Amino acid sequence: MKRLKILNVAYPFAAVTPETAGGAEQVLAMIDEAIVAAGHESLVLAAPGSQTHGQLVASAPVPEILDISARRHHLSIFKEQLEAVLRSGRVDVVHFHGLDFAVYLPTMPATYMATIHLPPEWYPRRSFEQGVHVVWVSRNQREASAQADGNLIPNGVRIDRLYPEGVRENYVLAMGRICPEKAQHLALDAATHCGRPLLLAGQVFPYPEHLEYFDLQIKPRLASDHSLIGPVAGTRKRHLLARAHCVVIASQVPETSSLVAMEALACGTPVVALRVGALPEIIENGRTGWLVESPGELPAAIEAASHIRREDCRRVAEQRFSAERMTRAYLEMYEQLTFRNTEYSQHPALQATHRAHPNPRGF
Length: 363
Hints:
By secondary structure, the chain is of the alpha/beta class. The protein folds into two domains: 5-156 and 323-356, Glycogen Phosphorylase B (Rossmann fold, 3-Layer(aba) Sandwich), CATH 3.40.50; 160-320, 3-Layer(aba) Sandwich (Rossmann fold). Helices cover 37% and strands 16% of the residues. The strands form two sheets. A seven-stranded parallel sheet has the order 3-2-1-4-5-6-7. The protein has a six-stranded parallel sheet with strand order 10-9-8-11-12-13, sandwiched between helices. Strand 11 (246-249), helix 7 (259-266) and strand 12 (271-274) form a beta-alpha-beta unit. The protein is globular.
């Protein structure tokens, strides 16, 4: 087996750590760990403070306030650093995870792929027009795009580190990035209607619109019976998930996946959510949770979560949501892309064509 050198390029504005409240960062972390475990070489270009199993190439410090000007300047520096990494030595595959990868996509020949973690309409059109191999994380996401091609690799979670424990308590749990599209204020209102405390585990990134949402919609709802507990990871995260009455996802956008839902089910905890995006691919209505059509239906669904059996949630998670299945698919894709490009580079006719008509993307 050829030892591959894989460069994973993180979203430039969030560190890759177990505490990061972002699915893309958690998926990248699992891929990085799997690359190293498989005997390959892993590079990760990510924000300072990231924690990796492979070699971390730390980018410039993330600006304290992420307004448009600060973001644009940071992305230009990020692109320069990425190109410097590629000039420094061989890289078999460059794997992007950020929404804005088209902004810092290098022009030099290489094998590029990108996992589309967010709704496809959020990405600039040029993201899908520059010879980058695309990976979708759900059927709903792929069907919602204008792209017919691309690999489908659903997300997974570390099932072996998550499991049911203790007894269900009275609190409701919401977890993730705190921002307008996640609409945690609706989860808080639903918990208030039920007379149940809600624990909000998550992080507010320093985007002006996120900070404004927190001040106007979240902070006023954090009464004595609701609490913001910040990002959580490890044992504390497992305890919170396993003992919650249910996890609530009140997102207002077409979710492409949900690691939070998968982690909750692995802990035997039902998920109550609005029926948006790919959530029906994860939550089996009436078996592992409840899907509702409007925020007004959330309180009744929260109460009905007591009828969902823990063992059913865990069984589904074991069957469908393992990180091993996900990372194995990524490793296979790396190998296939590398083999394909090796064949290309060794074919005399294609070499002559490439010399006459060079393709800046290396395909």
